[in-house]
Specification:
globular; 401 residues; seven-stranded mixed sheet; 17% helix; alpha+beta; binds copper (II) ion
């Protein structure tokens, strides 16, 4: 009897363990597919053809807006600049059909991907250029994982915006698990006044973007307090960008080549994302707040309306600045004008222009602080998070109708 009972409990325990193991595997599968969110951009849909995940990318001219009033005719993919997110799993067979709607040749380079030479997009060495109106079919098996990216390998086309993120989720999920996974593409632009076409030769940049938007037009990332958050940062431009997160420490957990061993993680709060690099960072969203995430290069924390017109520009500029000052103090005060270097700063809150639901409840005047390569990670108490997400959903539904 006792022996039977023992067997019964042993069997029950084994069955229970099996159930738990099965649940764990399912959970891990789900985790491996935790979708990456790309604020202000889209995910590229695919169809499965004979077991191959097939994507279509169209290289084309894209009319976009970095911020209200700053229009741009850039080059991107499938109607956006940068292009949409491609998201696949390690082990997947992937096909990408590139269609060239540009007026000149192009190709797609798969940055960091271990692919056959004729599939990784080096024009000349591995393939012929894809002529205007032409197509090229890229096909590879994903034998690695990480935050990769795709871009034209023609340098000037890169500076016109041709960049997109490629996330390959690992077969064995990363530990510890994250609750949220965001992707941000970093770009810089030279736009002359009254001209919407980026100057791809310029060495000086006056518009700095996260996912094709400059602050305060960047859409904040909404996070529930207690969630673990991953950010994937990718940089393609002429400068390295030290990306800083306010109010939180994070660890750098990966690069464009995949996961870093945990022994190499240490807490920091500014990560240098070099040209051609990806950095994954992770943090536990412990602290409630609207936390700024931005490049720390001072000139990358501004939207410069006119290139080369700094505070030392002699005439009219102080007046132009004073007209944008919201009356905190008189800027035209003659005494102030005797102070060397005056004026330096501008303060132009435009909250009303950005009253989208993701910005709901931000402190009055918030938009005055947001310029250039800046966005916000809003760590919200659970009820507040649910309230704002409901507003986002309602706005989305209204938008769809
Ligand atoms: Cu920067």
């Amino acid at each position: 009897m006792v022996a039977n009972r023992r067997n019964f409990f042993a069997r029950a325990a084994a069955a229970g363990a099996g159930l738990i193991a099965a649940r764990k595997i399912r959970a891990q599968e789900n985790l491996a597919n935790l979708p990456v969110e790309v604020p202000d951009l889209a995910r590229l849909p695919h169809r499965v053809v004979d077991g191959v995940k097939e994507f279509r990318l169209v290289a084309e001219v894209v009319h976009s807006q970095f911020a209200p009033g700053r229009e741009v005719d850039a080059w991107g993919y499938n109607g956006t600049v940068p292009g949409p997110l491609i998201e696949v799993n390690e082990g997947d067979r992937v096909r990408v059909i590139l269609e060239n709607k540009l007026p000149e040749m192009t190709a797609l380079h798969w940055h960091g991907l271990e692919a056959p030479m004729e599939m990784e997009g080096s024009v000349g060495l591995g393939q012929d250029p894809v002529p205007p109106g032409g197509q090229y079919v890229y096909e590879f098996t994903m034998n690695q994982h990480g935050t990769l990216f795709y871009h034209s390998h023609f340098a000037m086309q890169e500076m016109m915006g041709q960049l997109g993120m490629l996330v390959v989720h690992p077969k064995t999920p990363y530990a510890p698990r994250v609750d949220r996974d965001f992707g941000i593409l970093i770009q810089e632009w030279a736009l002359m006044p009254n001209n919407n076409v980026p100057n791809s030769l310029a060495m000086e940049f006056n518009w700095l973007t996260f996912n094709g938007k400059s602050g305060p037009a960047t859409t904040p990332m909404l996070v529930k307090q207690g969630e673990r958050v991953r950010l994937r940062l990718v940089n393609l431009g002429m400068d390295h960008h030290p990306i800083h997160l306010h109010g939180n420490q994070f660890v750098v957990t990966g690069t464009e080549a995949g996961r870093k061993p945990q022994a190499l993680w240490f807490e920091e709060n500014t990560v240098l994302v070099g040209v051609g690099q990806a950095r994954n960072i992770e943090f536990d969203a412990k602290h409630i707040g609207d936390w700024m995430l931005h490049c720390h290069m001072p000139h990358h924390m501004m939207n410069q309306m006119v290139s080369m017109a700094g505070p030392m520009a002699p005439t009219g500029h102080a007046k132009a600045m004073s007209s944008s000052n919201i009356g905190l103090y008189p800027m035209d005060d003659p005494a102030k004008k005797t102070v060397p270097g005056y004026p330096q700063d501008m303060w132009m809150p435009m909250d009303d222009m950005f009253d989208k639901p993701e910005n709901f409840g931000l402190r009055k005047g918030w938009s005055g602080a947001m310029m250039g390569m800046m966005t916000i990670i809003r760590v919200l108490p659970p009820e507040r998070y649910d309230e704002i997400i409901a507003r986002v959903r309602t706005a989305g539904a209204n938008h769809a109708h």
